[in-house]
Amino acid sequence: MIMIINNINDVYAITMIICLCNGITDKQIDCAAKEGAVSWRDVHATYGKAPQCGSCQCEINKQISKHQAHKATKESAPSLSFGSSASQLAYES
Ligand code: FES
Fold first, then answer.
1. What pTM did the predictor assign?
2. Which of 6, 30, 51, 61 is the most exposed, having the fewest neighbouring CB atoms within 10 Å of its CB?
3. 55 Cβ partners below 8 Å, 6+ apart?
């Protein structure tokens, strides 16, 4: 794993290259997971790459699992809704 720290307009962004064989970063893995990748091979396929040594398999699968757990938590969380009809927004003086 390689960490790259970018400073763009005094905002630091850390990018980690997870797959050294193909240069796939942690952010690319997140994007692939958001687009439906559910496995190590899916992530590689998303970027037109083929897995090679396999060293990144565990880390990529771990990141996909975290994404899926986060997504499940967001979907099961109750949503707050506030009325927007005129009667609910009106107040008496
Ligand atoms: S590090 Fe990903 S296939 Fe080698």
1. 0.73
2. 6
3. 19, 20, 21
